[in-house]
């Protein structure tokens, strides 16, 4: 298997070149309708093709939401496979938002699906859920290292329900979210310019100074745009770790469609806003 340069190094370089921004591709029914498209495979193909044309070679990272393609069955997955290939061919990193999490051979199979170089869904990184225990992610961690890919582990998510698990306090006095961050810091120890194992940390969570966010790895930060956070909020939320933050915007960019030019302009505007906010904080 051909081994890529580690994801963390590739991500650092493309963030510096294109601006630190991830744009989600989330073809849900309401968004297809707002673009004048039917909620069918033809609408999905048109939406995805337009999004890829606008975003490839423009932003650092694109994050397709797997569920919105899976709902169309094998034909929807085929659309996603083509999108992944086209984005990666343009030098845009793909983070597959599949939030997989299981144990043993099942987790290994999920890892093979998204992190093996020969898979048609091979992505530069994968979102994963650690809530069967961080150790359950070992097959994905191992294969990511082998292939030069990365992971984004759910740690402190922006959905209000997440707190009942992520803020639960362990016997050692540390809560679950902080424990996940500590595991990731261990995975990334000694890596330069940063490690490949990141955390998902919501940009809408306010002051996170009680957490050790400097895990020497990327922080994927949903919540910019439609969820209410702005680029200007990032330094206050992430503090000294803000340079490694990859804010995710979905609806804030996608609502500009179906015009390719308008989508591209929206993405560039968000990227510029994030770049300016980060530059002013470091």
Automatic annotation (TrEMBL):
Residues 20-266 form the Orotidine 5'-phosphate decarboxylase domain. The keyword Lyase applies. GO terms for molecular function: orotidine-5'-phosphate decarboxylase activity. Keywords: Decarboxylase, Lyase, Pyrimidine biosynthesis. Pathway: Pyrimidine metabolism; UMP biosynthesis via de novo pathway; UMP from orotate: step 2/2. Belongs to the OMP decarboxylase family. Type 2 subfamily. NCBIfam families: pyrF_sub2. This is Orotidine 5'-phosphate decarboxylase. It comes from Streptomyces xanthii.
């Amino acid at each position: 298997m051909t081994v890529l340069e580690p994801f963390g190094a590739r991500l650092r370089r493309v963030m510096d070149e294109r601006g630190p921004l991830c744009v989600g591709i989330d073809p849900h029914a309401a968004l297809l309708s707002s673009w004048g498209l039917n909620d069918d495979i033809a609408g999905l193909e048109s939406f995805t093709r337009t999004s890829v044309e606008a975003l490839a070679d423009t932003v650092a990272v694109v994050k397709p939401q797997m569920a919105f393609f899976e709902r169309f069955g094998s034909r929807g997955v085929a659309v996603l496979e083509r999108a992944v290939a086209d984005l990666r061919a343009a030098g845009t990193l793909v983070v597959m938002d599949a939030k997989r999490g299981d144990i043993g051979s099942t987790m290994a199979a999920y890892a093979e699906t998204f992190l093996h170089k020969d898979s048609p869904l091979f992505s530069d990184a994968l979102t994963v859920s650690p809530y069967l225990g961080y150790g359950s992610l070992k097959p994905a961690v191992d294969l990511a290292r082998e292939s030069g890919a990365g992971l984004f582990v759910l740690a402190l998510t922006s959905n209000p329900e997440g707190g009942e698990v992520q803020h639960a306090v362990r016997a050692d006095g540390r809560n679950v979210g902080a424990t996940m961050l500590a595991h990731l810091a261990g995975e990334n120890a000694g890596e330069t310019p940063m490690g490949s194992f990141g955390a998902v940390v919501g940009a809408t969570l306010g002051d996170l100074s009680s957490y050790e966010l400097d895990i020497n790895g990327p922080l994927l930060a949903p919540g910019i745009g439609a969820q209410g956070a702005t680029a200007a909020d990032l330094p206050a939320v992430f503090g000294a770790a803000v340079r490694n933050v990859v804010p995710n915007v979905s609806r804030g960019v996608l609502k500009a469609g179906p015009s390719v030019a308008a989508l591209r302009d929206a993405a560039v505007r968000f990227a510029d806003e994030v770049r300016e906010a980060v530059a002013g904080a470091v």
